[in-house]
Structure prediction request, 96 residues.
Amino acid sequence: MGKIHGLIFLFKCQEESSSSSFGEIIPNHPTLFFANQMISNACATQAILSILMNGDGIELGETLGEFKEFVSEFDAENKGESIELYFFINLVNYYL
Prediction:
């Protein structure tokens, strides 16, 4: 087995849940990539993208590297909207 870069836990979100029930949200942490999910049914894409963007020693390649640099100063909501608008990520999400 190779190196594990992340784990994905999926839980059905309850409508009445608030973000505060999941703990403190740290806005725009300089070393942590976090984006709000703005695309419906994109849980897997969002989870994989977070693992890739936060992983040490993971070579992102040109496209994802440019995306990470582009959104590096964005807050979580704007990062989420950028994922929705970024053609390459939307294309991959469509086929997942």
Observations:
- The radius of gyration is 14 Å.
- The chain has four helices and no strands.
